[in-house]
Amino acid sequence: MAEQFLEEVYSDALILDDLRECVRFLSRYDVRRALRIFNESMAKLQKLLSKYAESDSGEATRLQNIALDIVNNWNDQSYVSGTITGKLIPGIYAYMARFTGIEVEDRGYLLKSSDSGFLTIKSADTGRYMHDVHDPMEEAGRVAAAIYDAEMENIIILGCGLGYLPYKIWKLSDGAVSIVIYEDNSEMIDYARHYGVLDWINQDNLTIRHNPDSDVLIGEFLDDIDFNNKSKCIYITAEKKWKFRGKFDGQFDYIVDCLQYGWELDDIVKINRWKNKKLPHKSFDSLKKDINSDEWIVLAAGPSFDDNMEFIRKSLGVRKIVAVNTVIKRVKDEAIKPDLFVAADSFDQLLEHIDGAEDITEAVPMICDRVTSWKFTYKYKGEIVFISTSSGESMKKEKDKEGDNWDVSGTVSCMAIEAAARLGAKKIYLVGLDLAFPGGNDYAKGMPHGKLAKSDNTMLVKSVDGGMVETAPTFNLFRQIIEGKIQQYSNIEFINMSKHGAFIKGAKNNAY
User: Fold this and answer.
1) Quick check: 387 and 367 in contact, CB under 8 A?
2) 51 near 92, Cβ under 8 Å?
3) All residues at 6 or more sequence positions from 468 whose CB lies less than 8 Å from its CB, including other chains
4) CB of 499 within 8 A of CB of 509?
5) For 492, what's the count of Cα atoms within 13 Å in the CB-facing half-sphere?
6) DSSP letters along 447-509, please?
7) d(Cα 190, Cα 188) in Å, to the nearest integer?
8) Radius of gyration over alpha carbons of the chain, in Å?
9) Is 11 exposed, middle or buried (0-12, 13-18, 19+ CB in 10 A)?
10) Cβ(497)–Cβ(464) below 8 Å
11) Nearest in space to 158 (alpha carbons), one of 253, 240, 259
12) CA–CA distances in Å: residue 181 to residues 166, 207, 425
């Protein structure tokens, strides 16, 4: 980590990075992620404003009012992004410039605060700054976005600087990329660790190759270049371009021409796909030989999970159980071993369902989308079957080389139903698929979901008990998707085990 006196400064400076990320997601219409990032940045901003108020209460109050204005107008994305960019970010820059001034000469180098609070450094050899004097982290973000590709497994960087670029690439890759840095100056590595952000990178992802003999170092760097390998990216920092231009034996211009990379709108899908390709896995056909049954229970996280505990226990060894990823911790607590798990989400929120409960997965196979969060699949201990889904491959809409696309979308429970149908089901019991708030509850006890579903505007729908029940538009959409799946498998008997949840057309109600 950076020196202690810089940790607080850099923590404040990261608010700027968070706000830019928020605006980036707003521009992509990903309002949910933008709101999450904004809320996290506001928690940090409150600490900054408390310090600001001690020296300039008027300016601190002004920034507080800007933040409140953004909250009150959140539904107007253009207003929000413009206010963040035009008012809130400049206000934070003004604070950082006033209270974080550092200018130190050391061993022929000049370490100096940028407007953002992050340090930049002036090279003794070239007389040039290595990083943007306004905001080194913002500059690194722009470069990282330009050169990073989700299929990249490794990036090789000539030049360490203070570590901003490798850090941003590591962040952009969601921790999936390996970074190799070639550096001839050991002092620069020390600066990057003590006054930069190099130690913010997971050290398992980072390799530093140092050699004070620049001729040897560049030779090793050139040997590492493979322009035919798309998974390996090369980058030369501006400082090293100036310093070593004459040492590339005529290859410099060619190398620079090759350093052009595109940027995908949403890289996480590609990251998950290529990371999951590396995992040992079995085919669905081989799973089908091992698991097959006339009767299946689809076990989801709704309140009827609690109501049907006796039924679930009596079904062990009699009926097969396919459980969605959201119930992993709960089945562990109840000592219930499903026959199969399913998972599909591409994002890290899956981790909350498996962290600390990995052991229950050891002897249970799992079916999951090829683009399921790799951080989740790498924690899973049982056998894995990767399939392609209509949602995961929706951009290409093409048949996967390793098998057909499963027509599932919206809710992971749909994948569980599809799995049971393909594994011989003639009767499927739906447990925990209430798709509503019976008794005011959205999920069964002990589920990591909390109360997120109720953040939607609620509505009333027909209940299985003959009355009406409150639900959310998202749940109602899932209900419609599941009804379509039931209609598709008209040869299978579906039984809704909920007592007071949403009525699911095509499913018999077991309670009435």
Assistant:
1) yes
2) no
3) 460, 461, 462
4) no
5) 29
6) -TTTTGGGGSPPEEEEBTTSSEEEE-HHHHHHHHHHHHHHHHTTTSEEEE--SSSB--TTEEE
7) 5
8) 27
9) middle
10) no
11) 240
12) 8, 6, 54
The residue type found at 157 is I
Q: Which residues contact 464 (CB under 8 A, 6 or more apart)?
A: 496, 498, 499, 500, 501, 502, 503, 504, 509, 511, 512
Tokens representing residue 491 in the block:
């040869």
Neighbours of 273 (CB within 10 A): 21
What residues in the chain have per-residue pLDDT under 70?
1-2, 226-231, 245-267, 390-403, 440-457, 511-512
List phi, psi (to 5°) of 452: -65, -35
Token pair belonging to 194: 């003590």
CB 366 within 8 A of CB 287: no
Alpha-carbon separation of residue 39 from 45, 84, 94 (angstroms): 10, 13, 21
The Cα–Cα gap between 368 and 453 comes to 23
pLDDT tens-digit readout, 108-154: 889 999 999 999 999 877 788 999 999 999 999 998 988 888 888 89
pLDDT tens, residue by residue, 226-271: 655 666 788 888 888 878 766 655 455 545 544 432 333 356 788 8
The 3-state DSSP class for residue 371 equals: coil
H/E stretch holding 111 reads: strand 109-113
Which is nearest to 348 in space by CA: 480, 175, 127? 175
Residues 272 and 374 sit within 8 Å (Cβ to Cβ): yes
**Count of C-beta atoms within a 10 Å radius of residue 68:** 11
